[in-house]
Request: fold
Amino acid sequence: QVYPKMDASFVGLTVISALLGHFELAPVRGFLGIAEEGYDNELIGDRITNLILHGFQGV
Reply:
């Protein structure tokens, strides 16, 4: 049986988990001097927070 809303929620949570795991490594990258151009951690963090607080549109 297919549950589209549950599948969409699972995908959303998986993406958020992957992104949050990526941000946990950000201090290590900064300490090692590994910079990524065009990468605004604050903006991406704000977007993730917005998704967590307001949910995904269309789900």
Notes: Residues 2 and 8 are 11 Å apart (CA to CA).
